Automatic annotation (TrEMBL):
This is Acyl-CoA dehydrogenase. Keywords: FAD, Flavoprotein, Oxidoreductase. Its cofactor is FAD. Gene3D superfamilies: Acyl-CoA dehydrogenase/oxidase, N-terminal domain, Butyryl-CoA Dehydrogenase, subunit A, domain 2, Butyryl-CoA Dehydrogenase, subunit A, domain 3. Residues 285-452 form the Acyl-CoA dehydrogenase/oxidase C-terminal domain. It holds the Pfam family Acyl-CoA_dh_C. Residues 468-585 form the Acetyl-CoA dehydrogenase-like C-terminal domain. It comes from Actinomycetospora termitidis. Residues 162-263 form the Acyl-CoA oxidase/dehydrogenase middle domain. PANTHER family: ACYL-COA DEHYDROGENASE (PTHR42803), ACYL-COA DEHYDROGENASE-RELATED (PTHR42803:SF3).
Amino acid sequence: MTAVMNRRDLEFLLFEWLDVTALTEHEYFAEHSRETFAALLELSEDLATTYFAPSNRLGDTEEPRIADDGTVTLPAETGAALAAFAKADLLAAQFDGSVGGMQLPLTVFQACMAWFQAANTATTGYAFLTIAAANLLVAHGSPEQVDAWVRPMLAGETFGTMCLSEPEAGSSLADVTTRATRCPDGTYRVVGTKMWISAGDHGLGDIVHLVLARTPGAPAGVRGLSLLAVPKYLPDRRRNDVVLTSLNHKTGTRGTTNAVLAFGDGTHAPTPEPGAVGYLVGEEGRGLAQMFHMMNEARIGVGLVAAAVGQAGYRKSLEYAAVRTQGRSLTDRDPTSPPVPLTAHPDVRRMLLAQKAYVEGGLALVLRCAMLVDRLRTVTDDRQRRRLGLLLDLLTPIAKSWPSQWCLEANSLAIQVHGGYGYSREFDVEQHWRDNRLNPIHEGTHGIQALDLLGRKVVTDGAFAELAAAIRATVAEAARIDALAEYAEALDDALTHLSHVTFLVTEPEHATAGLANATLYLEAAGHIVVAWIWLELAIAAHGREGRFYDGKRAAAQYFFRHELPKVSAPLDLLASHDRTALDLDPRCL
C-alpha cells in the first residue's frame, strides 16, 4: 500500500522548521517531549494505515443510506476505525487535562490528523466535527454541558455536528429562520430545517447538534442568532424531536453522511411544547460569534484536509510515475529502445514538482497557523498576544482557501500523471480529486473567504502590518544567504506590490470595486504568503545535505520561478479598480 503521507516531512516541519519541542518549556505543555510527539506521529501513521486507508474506497462505493426503519447504515469498517481512533485517546489529545485531554500542542495534533485525513477523509470527518464541537462547548458551554456532552465526545461515545445552513439560507446566515423559544424550565424548543449537515445522522453513537436559531423578538440579521445544543437523545434516553428527512448525495467524501434535518416537526415530540428540546450555549444573541469559534478552527482544519488529500494523490502519482514506463527520452529517437519511466520525462517531473510545492506548502501553512494558536496559549505579554492574534486572524481565510484551491489542482495533476488510468475508478486519484473538490465550498466558500480577508481582516488596524513584518523578517534572513537572495528579492518585490494594492483597494471610494474583485486579492495574497512559507522552509533546509533537502530546495525554486510571478497580473488588475463583474447586467449572461 502506498504511504499517503511522508513521516520524514512531518518531522522536518515540526522539529527542524517550527521547533515545536520548544513549546514544552511552557508549563502547559511540560508533560510532553520530542519523544512523546514522535510516538504520537508513529501511532497516527499506524492507525491510519491499519484502519482508515483500507476502507477509504469502501466508504466511497458503499455510501450511507437510510434503512427501512429510518436509521442510517454505514460500513462496519467506519465504526471500527473511529473506535480505534477513540481508544487511542486521539479525540481528547488536544484538550485540557481538566476534561481528560493530553494537552497536546495543536501543531502536533494537526500533524497527526494529517495522516488520517490523507488516509480516509470521509471517516475522519466524524472525528473532525466532534472535536470542533467539543472545543466550542469547552469554550462557551457551562460546566454541566461539558460534563454531559464533552466528556462522552472525547470518549468516542457521542458525536457532534454544526447546523448553520438551511434550504433557503446557505451561506447567508442572516436569513436563518429556525426558531428557538424559551420554556419556563430554562430549556428551549427548536423548530426549523437544517441542510448540508455533515455527520447529521449515523449509527456510530449519540449525537449533539449545535444549532443556530432565532429567539422571539431577536433583531434581524446575524445579531439575532443564538446557539443551542440539541441532543438526539434526552438525558432520560427519550428520543428528541430531531428527524433525518433525507441524505444529500455528494460528488466526494461520500462516506460522511450529509443530511437534511427537521427539528420539531412532531415526529417524536418528547414534551407537550412543540419543538426539539434545546439547551442554550452561552448567551442569547451571541450564537454566531460562538459558532465562529468552531468555524475558524474548522476553516484551518479544512486547509489541513485539502493539503492531506492533495498529499495522498501526490504520493500515489509519484509512485506510479516511477514504475510506469512509456515513451522515450527527448534525445532518444530509436523506436526499438526500451520505454522509460514517466519520471524520465521533464513535463511529468514538472507536474510532480508542482504537486510537491502545492501540498507541502499548504501543509506547512496550516501548521504555521496551528503554531500561532499554541503560542497564543503560552504568551503572557498582552501586546504580543494581540500581534499574534492579528496575524492568525488574517492568515485563517488564506489557510482555508489556498490549500483548497491549489491542493485540488495537485489532485488534478495526479490524474494527469496517471493518464487515462487516472480518470478511471480503478485508481484512487480520481476519488482524491472528488473528495477534495468540496473544500473550496464548505466552511465558507472561496468567495466568502475572499470577502472576509479583504473586507474584514486586512482592514483591521495593524493586521496587514503584522503580516508584512513577519514576511520582511524572513526576507532579511534569506537575503544573507547567497543561494536564497534571488527568492528574498522576489518576495520583497511581491510584498511591496501587494502592500500598494491593498492601500488602493481599501480606500473608501474604491472599496466596492475592491470587494467585487476580492477573490483576485485572496489568490494573490495567498500565493505571496505561501512563497513566504517556502522561503522559510528553504532557510530551514539550507546547508543540509541529502535528497530530502534537495527536494525542498527544488520545490522552493519551482514556487519562486513558476508560481510567484503569477501574482503580478491580478494585482495590476486590482489596482485598476476594474468593474467588469460589478457593472455587468446579469441579463447579459
